[in-house]
Design goal:
By secondary structure, the chain is α/β, with parallel strands linked by helices. It contains ten helices and twelve strands. The protein is about 40% helix and about 15% strand.
Length: about 290
């Protein structure tokens, strides 16, 4: 099976490329190799490459920057996926497109299902939702996978910043009143091939590690794991910050954006492991060696 992955310079795309290169015939493109704002170049390069499955892990993901550059946000996050879906339609290939929990407004207080109405409160969320609609309108076998709080070894994320802060300072804080669920790139890479075959239904699918937490709980567990692994830390506890005090943020963020993975479990018979297990695994694999 021939797989093309877009966004291999990012945290998720790099993980997918690493996990799949020995299992499939894989071609990966980062932003310097394939610029999603150049639609003609995208069309030309993808048509000459050829593939069975196109995985779009690329996007304009800087939430605050999207507010000040809305045209670019919609170009990369909405218009480019429409073109990718067109190309896949012409080539009779399957498109798997990654989206985000930020398509929801955060007003709900129980996990969001695929049937819940999306109501984004930021330009980033609006542009990602438009991209979803463009992908699904093109052909019903395309798949949109929504993920949240993605972490992994290929590019620093929130918990890496927290660990670094705890190594350098005696005090670290994280927001205690915003909730979602972390998603480990390794777990995404392991589950995704089930959806490569053409016969598998398309549509929207939520995937994250099981459970929910605040950023403070997430960071505290990461520090606990580091402590158990014998890593030297100057800070052992994470102080509680408040969402309302993040005055340097431009875009609004959903307060609660936990994704229900019940549909995934029903389709596959597999329940994602808990976020605590995933974070512990990550730290054991990539920090214990440092």
């Amino acid at each position: 099976m021939k797989i093309v992955i877009l966004g291999t310079g990012g945290r998720l795309g790099a993980a997918l490329l690493r996990e799949y290169r020995d299992k499939f015939e894989v071609t990966g493109f980062d932003r310097t190799q394939l610029d999603l704002s150049d639609m003609n170049g995208v069309r030309e390069k993808l048509q000459e490459t050829g593939f069975d499955v196109l995985i779009n892990a690329a996007g304009f993901t800087k939430v605050d920057l999207c507010e000040t550059q809305p045209d670019r946000a919609f170009l990369i996050n909405a218009e480019a996926p429409r073109v990718l879906a067109e190309i896949c339609g012409e080539m009779s290939s399957r498109l798997i497109h990654f989206s985000t929990d930020y398509v929801f407004d955060g007003e709900k207080r129980e996990p969001y299902t695929e049937r819940d109405e999306a109501a984004p409160i930021s330009i980033y969320g609006e542009s990602k939702l438009a991209g979803e609609k463009n992908v699904l309108a093109a052909q019903d076998r395309n798949l949109v996978v929504r993920v949240s709080w993605v972490f992994g070894p290929d590019r620093p994320s929130f918990i890496d910043a927290m660990i670094k802060g705890a190594q350098e300072s005696e005090r670290v804080d994280a927001i205690a009143d915003k909730f979602s669920a972390p998603t480990y790139t390794r777990d995404i890479a392991e589950m995704l091939p089930q959806f490569f075959e053409r016969g598998v239904d398309g549509g929207i699918l939520h995937f994250s590690n099981a459970g929910q937490c605040s950023w403070q709980e997430y960071a505290q567990w990461a520090l606990d794991c580091c402590n158990n692994a014998g890593l030297p830390l100057r800070a052992r506890t994470v102080g509680a910050g408040k969402l309302e005090n993040m005055t340097n943020w431009i875009a609004r963020r959903p307060v609660y954006s936990v994704l229900s993975t019940a549909k995934y479990t029903k389709l596959t018979g597999i329940s994602p492991r808990t976020w605590r297990e995933a974070v512990s695994d990550y730290i054991t694999r990539f920090y214990s060696k440092k």
